[in-house]
Amino acid sequence: MSKGIAILGATGSIGTSTLRVVDRQQDRFRIVALTAFGAAEKLRQRGRETGAGFLGLVNAEPSWAKSAVDGRVHGTGTESLVEAATHPDVEIVVNAVVGAAGLEATLAALAAGKRVALANKETLVMAGDLVMAAARDGGGEIVPVDSEHSAVLQCITGRPTVDVSRLILTASGGPFRGWDPTRVATATVDEALEHPTWRMGPKISIDSATLVNKALEVIEAHYLFGLGYDAIDVVVHPQSIVHGFVEFVDGSILAQMGYPSMELPILYAMTHPERVADVGVKRFDPVAAGDLTFEPIRQDVFAAFALGVAAGRAGASAPAVFNAANEVAVQAFLDKRISFGQIAGVIDSALQAHRGDPAEDLETLLGVDRWARETAEAACC
Ligand code: NAD
Ligand code: MG
Q1: Which amino acid residue places its CA nearest to atom 20 of ligand 1?
Q2: Does residue 229 have its Cβ closer than 6 Å to ligand 1?
Q3: Domain ranges of the chain
Q4: φ and ψ at 266, to 5 degrees?
Q5: Is 3-144's fold the same as 160-259+297-379's?
Q6: Candidates 13, 58, 214: which one to mutate for ligand 1, based on the most atoms within 8 Å of Cβ?
Q7: Residue 253 pairs with which residues in a beta bridge?
Q8: What is the rounded distance in angstroms from the CA atom of residue 381 to the CA atom of residue 377?
Q9: Which of 90, 100, 186, 176 lies closest to 140 in space, CA to CA?
Q10: Residue 266 CB-density burial (10 A; 0-12 exposed, 13-18 middle, 19+ buried)
């Protein structure tokens, strides 16, 4: 019996890769629900191609609800994300929405006992304690899609967690790895979007250029694997072949490797702890892969990385402030309202102004998120 899948963010980079993975595994999975922000025609077409019974369009014209055909249901607004995530025929929710908008659907899916294959790292950073508690209390589970966290999960699966002493996440270093600091500060939008090893949506591409993405991933790892920040390191690895290392208490290291492609971590998030044959994944050739190199992060050039890790260490609502301020700064940069070099300053100004509210409930966190967005927005003028 195939498993029902909902893809939230089905028109994006991860959503599209997930559709390719499901297409190759039709005996295992069937698409039940798809959502998108505003691309109505693309979503409608993907609905026809996959036979999804539910299509949720967040930013929908009034005509959308009435235009459903062939017994399909058309949902609208942010409620449609929750509707897709809690659909009774859905067992696995692939959350590939970008940004804080994915939070409610993750919480609802976990409360409904679903597996959440989580690409939407922003929501784990914003509300890590709440999300992990929702998984414990609701009977659902979170399995990471992010390649570094998938690597860690693949290395530790079947081993006692007390045996793990340290994680080392790899970072490609982004498009500005070897650049002069003054040149980085004035980098253009097109230069920042040109990632050397991965093809991704615009927000995560900018996060990879600032290395904010890696700070988000350190916080993500802290919540997913329950390790302290002293036990999570990062190393720059420009070839993106080793996705993550796990060090065990005896000093032994395991790593997961492969050519950069999100299709393998997406598939693994859906089948974990099982592995299934997949003809779409390019087989690894160590000789063709060539040299694998490692270097430290230049924290003086990529200041936002250290701000993110410090926010993670501060805990409570500081990671939510970091995430919200970064989302605002990235949008302002993409809109050409601030320079690349100003992104870290905008994030820092929100973190400096933050009073350190707790992060006990959703209402408080959403309030912190709103406040941080307004504060960061004001810093962009
Ligand atoms: P993308 O911009 O390509 O796609 C985002 C999707 O979310 C689209 O379908 C869009 O319609 C939808 N969306 C956007 N805003 C929304 C909103 N307010 N409400 C509901 N839906 C909305 O992004 P992506 O590159 O696919 O990344 C998605 C998530 O996965 C991000 O959190 C990113 O950090 C994470 N991720 C991506 C990659 C990658 O290779 N692309 C790798 C690891 C993790
Ligand atoms: Mg990643």
Answers
A1: 37
A2: no
A3: 3-144, 160-259+297-379
A4: -65, -50
A5: no
A6: 13
A7: 247
A8: 7
A9: 90
A10: buried
* Closest residue CA from atom 25 of ligand 1: 201
The CATH fold of domain 160-259+297-379: Rna Polymerase Sigma Factor; Chain: A (1.10.1740)
Q: From the CA of 163, how far away is ligand 2's center (Å)?
A: 24
Q: Distance, CA 203 to ligand 1 centroid (Å)?
A: 8
Rounded Cα distance, 346 and 352, in Å: 10
Give ∠ CA 192-193-198 in degrees, rounded to 5: 115
The neighbouring-strand residues paired with 256 are 244
* Type of residue found at 123: T
Q: Does ligand 1 have an atom closer than 6 angstroms to the CB of 312?
A: no
CATH H superfamily, domain 3-144:
NAD(P)-binding Rossmann-like Domain (3.40.50.720)
Residue 148 and residue 170 in contact, taking contact as beta carbons nearer than 8 Å: yes
Q: Which residue has the tokens 């939230």?
A: 8
Nearest C-alpha to atom 36 of ligand 1 is from which residue?
Answer: 119
Q: What is the pLDDT along the chain (381 residues), one digit of tens a residue?
A: 899 999 999 999 999 999 999 999 999 999 999 999 999 999 999 999 999 999 999 999 989 988 998 889 999 999 999 999 999 999 999 999 999 999 999 999 999 999 999 999 999 999 999 999 999 998 999 999 999 999 999 999 999 999 999 999 999 999 999 999 999 999 999 999 998 888 899 999 999 999 999 999 999 999 999 999 999 999 999 999 999 999 999 999 999 999 999 999 999 999 999 999 998 889 999 999 999 999 999 999 999 999 999 999 999 999 999 999 999 999 999 999 999 999 999 999 999 999 877 888 999 999 999 999 999 999 998
9 Cβ inside 6 Å of ligand 1: yes
**Nearest ligand to the C-alpha atom of residue 42:** 1
120 lines ligand 1 (CB under 6 A): yes
* String of DSSP letters for 185-233: HT--HHHHH--SS----HHHHHHHHHTHHHHHHHHHHHHHH---GGGEE
DSSP secondary structure, 87-109, as one string: -TT-SEEEE---SGGGHHHHHHH
